[in-house]
Amino acid sequence: MPWKVFAEDEGTGLQDQSDHDYGDGANFGAHVHSPYDTQYAPSPPTLDVDYTVPEVTLGEAQYKLKATDVSSRTRDGVQTTWPEATFVAKAPQTTVSLTDNTVNYIYVAVDLTTTGDDGQYVVNTTESAPAEPSLKVAEIDTSADTATTVNTTTDAEPQVRELTVEDWESGALDTDVWEGDTGQFKVQPTTAESGEYALQGITDSNPQVLVSSRGLKNYPQPSDTFSVSILLTSTSDNPTIRFSANGASGDYKDVSVEASSDVLQFHETASGTFRNITAVDAPVSSHLNEWLEVVFDWKDDGGVDAYLYDSTGSLLSVIESSPEDWTNPTAARGVGFVANGNSSSEMYFDSAHVKRPIEDYLTETQKGTTELGNEVTPSGAVHTGPQEAPTNAPRAEYATAPVTDEATQGEQSLLTLLKSGVNPALYMERTFDGQGGAYGHRLQAPLGRFARVNAALKHQYSTFAYTDWVSGSGGGTYTLGHTSDRPRRFIVSHDGSGNDVLGAVYHPALVSHDVLGSWRITFRDVSFTDNGNTAENYLLIGVSDADPTASRIDSTGNAVIYRDSLDVDRVLTVNGGTASDTTGPQVDWSSNHDVTLEFDGSEASLYIDGEFWASVSDSPRGDMRPVIQLRDGGGNTTSDTVEVEDVTVEPLPEVLN
Questions:
Q1: Same structural domain for residues 383 and 261?
Q2: Under 8 Å between Cβ of 27 and 48
Q3: Are residues 237 and 106 part of one domain?
Q4: Contact (Cβ atoms closer than 8 angstroms) between residue 72 and residue 24
Q5: Structural domain ending residue among the three candidates 149, 172, 203
Q6: pTM (2 decimals)?
Q7: In angstroms, rounded to a whole number, what is the distance separating the alpha carbons of residues 413 and 469?
Q8: Which residues in 371-388 are b (16+ Cβ under 10 Å) and which e?
Q9: Which end of the chain has a smaller Cβ tally under 10 Å, C or N?
C-alpha cells in the first residue's frame, strides 16, 4: 500500500500539480477524525412522545458519526482506505412509530454508498445497532412512559491527571515525611511491582503503622481514583491501606485486605473511636506472593468503593460504601500503610498513585508553588509550551490550556494558574475556541505591594531565626516557631500548664486596608488539635495591631481574625478595642484546612477551604500584621497545638481591574 498524505497541493509546495489531492469526503472525514470527538450528538434532538399511539417526534438534530475503512482516490486512480473517519449529519424533525409496552431503541443511520444525504432513524426493541455509520440517540420505554436521549456528549479524552503519591524510587524511607512505626518498614529493591524499589512492612503479629500527613506532593482526596499495589506472603497477612489519615495516631479511614479471613473490610477511627464499616468476601489467600492492586473510587460526596484486582487485571472483589457510612465522609489529608497479621510476616506496598479530574487538579495548584520556565508545565495548565518565568511585574506571556467548562467561541475569562487558598496569585487571560480549548495570553503576576508583602512572609529556611517572623509568649510552656518538617510549618503549642497566658508567631509586615486596599489573607493547611474544648483555650489567627504575646487579639486594638473557642467558630473584627463577630458552622479539625480572611474595608469574611463561612460588617483600621495566637487559659491541663504551612496575602479581584 502506498503512502497517503492529505492535504497536498500547490499551496503546500507540491511541485507536480497532477498529484494534488481531491477535497473529497473520505479525505476530509479522515482529516477531522478524532476518537474523542465522534459518536455523539453535538445538538441532540428533542423528544415529543405520544404514548397512546405510540410514536415520537424527534426535533432537528446534529450528529457526528464514525465510519471505518472509508475509501478515497487520487488523481492517478490509486485508491486509499482510511481506517477511521468522521462524518457529520443534520437530521430534520422526524416522527417515527414505536412498539408499545417495551423499550424502544432509536438509532440514527447514514448510508454513504447510495444517493447523497441518505440518513434515517431506525427503531428496534433488541438494541441492535444498524450498519455503521450509526449511533443510538434515544431510549423510550412505552411501558413506563419514559424517554431519554443518549450519547449527547463526546467520549472525550479523560480529563484526569495521574499523580504519584509515593513510589519509593528514592530508595530510602524519608522519616521527615513518614511517621509511626518507621523501624518496621524499609524501602528495599528485592521485591518490587514496578521500578526498582518498594516498601516492605514487617509485622510481629501486632499492627505496624506508617503514615504521612504532610511532605508528599500529592495525597488522595474526594473525586480521586487512588490505587496501591500490595503483595502478601502468608495466609496470616492482613495489610491495610489508610486514607484520610490524620497522623499515625489520629483519625483515619482504611480498607484491609485480609488473607486470614478472605475478606475486604472498611474501617474508620473518628474522634478516637474505632469501628468496622462493612466487609465483603474476597479470595485473598489464594493470591499470595502475587502483586494485587487495590483501587479506591473516592466519590465527591464521600462514598468510597474499593476494587481488588489480581496480577492479570481480573477483578477479584469489590466493596462499596455510601457517604452515610462514614462519620466524616469527605475529610481528606494523609495516607498510610499498616503491616498487620496474626503472626510474624512480611508484606509489600508499591506504586501509590491518584488519578484526579483536571478541574480538581487545577484547584490543587493552591497546594504548592508553580514554576513557569523552560519546558516546565505550570501546575494546573496542560499542554503549555515553553514560557519565561514570571516576575513580580505584569508582563506578556503565551500559553495554551484546555478547559473543562463549556464556553462559546471568542468568550474570554481569567484562568488562575497560581493559587493560594482561594486567592489568585497569577492570572492568564484566555480566549475560548469553542471546542473545549482555550488560548491564553498576558499572564499577570500579583501587584507590587502584595508581592513585596508575600516576599517578606517567606519562611522556608533551615531555622526559624533566619526568617523575618517573630515568636514569643507571656508565660506558661510554649513551643513556638518552626517544625522540623520539610516544608517547614509554623507551630504554636502549649502544654496546658499556663493560666491566662498567650503565645504567638507573628510578622511585622503591614496587612491593612490603608496600605493594600482590599485584601485576602490565607493561612494554608492549618492543623489544630482542638483538645482544650474549654472557654479558656482559644485559637486566634488573622491580622492585628496588638502585641499578641501580651494581649488577646480578639479584644484589643484593631483586628480581623478567625477564632475557635469552645468549638464555636467566628469571624471577628476589633475596631479600637470594640469587638464584633458572627458565628459560623463548627470547623471539623479532624483534618487540615485552609483558613482565609477577606476584607474590603467595610466587611470581613471567613472562608474555610475556599467555601464561604461567615462575615461581619465593620471597618477596623490600624497597622495590622499577620498573627497566629494560642491562649492557654487555665482551668485544665490539656495541651493544644496549631500548625500552619504557609501564609499569603493577595488582592481581591477588583484590584486587578
A1: no
A2: no
A3: no
A4: yes
A5: 149
A6: 0.43
A7: 37
A8: ebeeeebbbbbbebeebe
A9: C
- What are the tens digits of pLDDT across the range 382-433? 333 333 333 332 333 333 333 333 333 333 344 434 333 333 344 444 444 4
Judge if 223 and 352 occupy the same domain: yes
Query: CA-to-CA distance for 446 and 426, rounded, in angstroms?
Result: 6
Of the candidates 213, 239, 234, the one whose C-alpha atom is nearest the C-alpha of residue 294 is 239
- Cα(519)–Cα(526) distance, rounded to whole angstroms? 20
Q: Kindly state whether residues 169 and 202 are assigned to the same domain.
A: yes
- What is the spatial distance between Cα 101 and Cα 98, in angstroms, rounded to a whole number? 9
Indicate whether 469 pLDDT > 50.
yes
Q: Is the pLDDT of residue 205 over 50?
A: yes
For strands 119-124 and 240-245, give the pairing.
Answer: unpaired
Concatenated DSSP letters of 229-257:
EEEE-STTB--EEEEEE-SSSS-EEEEEE
Residue 9: the pLDDT is 60
Question: Are 585 and 547 in the same domain?
Answer: yes
310 in any annotated domain: yes
How many distinct structural domains can be found in the chain? 4
Residue 154 lies in a domain: no
Considering the domain architecture, whether residues 390 and 480 belong to the same structural domain is answered as no
Cell 416522527 identifies what position? 95
Burial class (CB in 10 A: 0-12, 13-18, 19+), 263: middle
- Alpha-carbon distances, residue 285 vs 233, 257, 316, 346 (angstroms): 9, 10, 12, 15
Q: What is residue 277's three-state secondary structure?
A: strand
Structure letter (DSSP) for residue 116 = T
What local confidence, expressed as pLDDT, does residue 97 receive?
96
Distance CA 223, CA 303 (A): 10
Q: Is the Cβ–Cβ distance between 512 and 518 less than 8 Å?
A: no
CATH no. for residue 31? 2.60.520
Calpha distance 507→526 (Å, rounded)? 17
DSSP element (H, E) containing 455: helix 448-457
Distance CA 490, CA 604 (A): 24
Place of cell 500579583: 446
Model confidence at 177: pLDDT above 80: yes
Query: What does pLDDT average to over the chain?
Result: 80
Cα–Cα distance for residue pair 155/176, rounded to 1 Å: 43
Q: Considering only 81-95, 150-164, 196-210, which range has the smallest mean pLDDT?
A: 150-164
Block residue for cell numbers 450519547: 151
Measured distance CA(192)–CA(194) in Å, rounded = 6
Integer Cα distance of 553 and 570 in angstroms: 13
Query: For the chain, how many residues are written?
Result: 657
CB burial of 6-40 (b: ≥16 within 10 Å; e: otherwise) equals beeeeeeeeeeeeebbeeeebbbbbeebeeebbbb
Asked, as a colleague might, if the bond just before 487 is cis with ω within 30 of 0, I would say yes
Q: Residue 68 has which C-alpha cell? A: 471505518
Nearest to 591 by CA among 268, 276, 363, 175: 268
